Amino acid sequence: MLIRIAVTLLLALMPVAPALAQETIQPILQTHADIIEKSSRRSIGPAIDAIAASGLPQAQVVLETWQAKDMWQRLDDGLFVAARKEDGGYRLTDFDTGADLGLVDKDTIDQLKPNSGIRAMIGAALVRFQLSDPDPARRVAALDAIDRDAQASHLPALRAAIAGEDDPTLKARKQRLERLLTIRFAPDPEARIAAMGDMAGDLGVDMRATLNPILATTRHVATGLPDRGNIARVLEPGSDALPAQDAYALLVTDGLAPARLTSDALRETLAGNIVDGAVGGVPLADLDRDASRIRAYAALVAQGRATPAATDADVAEALAGHVFYELYTEDDARITTAAEDALAAIRTKVAVHQVLDLSLDALSLASIYFLAAIGLAITFGVMGVINMAHGEFIMMGAYTGYVVQQLIPDYTLSLIVAIPAAFAVTFAAGVAMERLVIRWLYSRPLETLLATFGISIALQQIAKNVFGTQARPLTSPGWLDGALVFNDVVSISYIRIAIFVLALLFLGFFLFLMNRTRLGLETRAVTQNPKMAASMGINPDRVNMLTFGLGSGIAGIAGVAIGLYAKVTSELGADYIVQSFMTVVVGGVGNIWGTLLGASMIGFLQKGIEWMNPSNTLAAQTYMIVFIIIFIQFRPRGIIALKGRAAGD
Q1: One domain for residues 290 and 157
Q2: Which class for 523: exposed (0-12), middle (13-18), buried (19 or more C-beta within 10 A)?
Q3: Which residues are CB-neighbours of 612 under 8 A, at least 6 positions away?
Q4: Residue 393 and residue 250: Cα distance in Å, rounded?
Q5: 256 and 211, same structural domain?
Q6: Are 243 and 269 in a shared domain?
Q7: Diameter over CA atoms, the chain
């Protein structure tokens, strides 16, 4: 101890300039040597604070060395040094000068081993240095540390680090974090209120997490409202906010009323006080009635053999004679009012953004339904064929994408190859189905429905035999991973954006095909009047074949898109066939714009119903079907009615 005191005095009285003497950190370490050596989390705070607040450049090195368990103390003079193990001993380094103090044996030094609690405290103290570190990564790490475990000591350091920040992104993050910490820790109420005003409407979850503790309440009961305290609200016993049983339980807990007599307690008390075939003077034979049991218990209370219990009348009287209220844990009413106003603004903005997020979800779902239904709209509108196997063409397209990925490991390249491959496979399957089955069943809708339904079952079974019943992965490329995040409420996955873009491309492709190509002209002619088209030299049989193949090919491409986020199984198409038919019927048979509007209506309707009843997705399907049944009563030909054969002209 005498050696240590001498070292401290020597360091303090060294014949150097005052400015130089203030640049050494060893005197600070020696002043707090006792608590540093003890390494107790309860007492170490002043030492860490003194080092961090010294303003010396060595402070960060000392704290980092200490946190890494590389700070040692020489036994002969108590000097704190950094030590690194080498062959033959430990290499010592002076904290102030960085000078090499030589290689020593381990027996001559003592290692300081901070526990996890002390290391956490050191880490919190290091944040103030890391916030201004030249390395942006360390500044980000410091901000992350504050996010995880913010402390009041971080606020001054954060404010000091804002002015010198040259990275706009990090500066904005520091400013936002400073506002949050001001709300939590600033001693000045006006500063906290101003910070809440600045952050009102902020959609970050951390903002709500900062405000909610300010509005935390505790329940109390008394004969009247207190003169002091920040009262949040007065509670009425028996209301939704305070059920009567909860209110009386609060009275019992505070010793303001006796506990109610439960049936178990009544039975145990009566069973333990049977004397000469009676309880409290009531014969056992009479204890089969509630009134008799209550009378016997009252007799036991009068005899001092049972504790008094509250009756219904006692409970009602006790509830009526007391006031129940909630107190804010925050005493300043101005702060809680500002917090309530800020949360109200946030709730309003969150509600608006939730509508926007729901709209994005509905739009993406509509694009999926549009892709699934566009092929059906072509075949149904032009040919009048109810193709129940349309969903299986979607399934075939998804499995084609899976097979291509097995052959081409590059997910981007495999996706590029899978789209035309799926079109080719399902186009060929559609042409084969039209030539072999559909062409013999024109103008016979019931037989067509039954035949295509049988084909759909057969295709599902073939898929099970080839690929098995286990779901197969259709992996999206890396650039489609993640989501486009606008804020903590609104986001949309990149896969859904890609499907939306694909739907727009197909809309443009279909419009070009129908309005700018010979096939489109012939298709429209056959749709309007097949006999007149045949008399003009158009082959309706050929048009029907190509149209059915085109619709099937588009369904195959839709299968690739859907398979990127849905499980690829033999039942994949069955999950979308109902929605596809509803889309076509609601939109208007054979009209591309009607199909687009029908998909949008069904997508928004389904998402809206799911939002109102999120726990029951089956209900959404049921309500949607009911709505569509009602809708077609008023518009049996859909939103946009088609004139011609498909419309029954």
Answers
A1: no
A2: buried
A3: none
A4: 65
A5: no
A6: no
A7: 120
Q: Which residues pair with 568 in a beta bridge?
A: 472
Question: Domain span at residue 107?
Answer: 2-121
Percent of the chain scored above 90 by pLDDT? 23
Whole-model pTM?
0.67
Distance CA 642, CA 380 (A): 12
Q: Looking at the domain assignment, is residue 632 inside a domain?
A: yes
In DSSP notation, 121-137 reads: HHHHHHHHHHTT-SSHH
Alpha carbon distance 626, 637 (integer Å): 17
Query: Which of 71, 95, 121 is the last residue in one of the domains?
Result: 121
Report the alpha-carbon distance of residue 283 to residue 276 in Å, rounded. 9
Output the pLDDT for position 82. Answer: 93
| Helices vs. strands in the chain: H and E counts, helices first | 27, 12
d(CA 79, CA 7): 8
Q: Which residues contact 205 (CB under 8 A, 6 or more apart)?
A: 488
Indicate which CATH number applies to the domain containing 620: 1.10.3470
Do residues 538 and 591 share a domain?
yes
What single string gives the DSSP state of each residue in 579-637? HHHHHHHHH-TT-HHHHHHHHHHHHHHHHHHHHHSTT-HHHHHHHHHHHHHHHHHH-TT
Q: How far is CA 374 from CA 13, 96, 366, 550, in A?
A: 90, 76, 12, 10
Question: Cα(425)–Cα(441) distance, rounded to whole angstroms?
Answer: 23
Q: Which amino acid is it at 184?
A: R
Question: Of 155, 183, 215, at which residue does a domain stop?
Answer: 215
pLDDT at 630 (0 to 100): 87
Q: CA 389, CA 397: separation in Å to the nearest integer?
A: 13
> Residue 57: what pLDDT?
82
Length of the chain: 649
- The answer to whether residues 207 and 221 belong to one domain is no
Contact 63, 126 (CB under 8 A): yes
Confirm whether 345 is domain-assigned.
Answer: no
For residue 645, name the pLDDT band (cuts at 50, 70, 90): very low
Is residue 608 situated within a structural domain?
A: yes
The count of structural domains within the chain is 5
**pLDDT tens string 169-183:** 999 999 999 999 999
Phi, psi of 471 (to 5 degrees): -65, 140
Residue 231 domain flag: yes
Instruction: Determine the pLDDT at residue 17.
Output: 35
Three-class SS of 390-439:
HHHHHHHHHHHHHHHHHHCCCHHHHHHHHHHHHHHHHHHHHHHHHHHCHH
Query: What are the beta bridge partners of residue 485?
Result: 491
What average pLDDT does the segment 627-643 reach?
77
- Is 17 in the same domain as 72? yes
CA distance 456 to 451: 9
Instruction: For residue 598, count other CB atoms closer than 10 A to its CB.
Output: 31
Would you state the structure tokens that stand for residue 564, as one six-digit string? 């990127």
269 and 355 assigned to the same domain: no
Based on the domain organization, do 301 and 384 belong to the same domain?
A: no
Residue 588 structure tokens: 């208007």
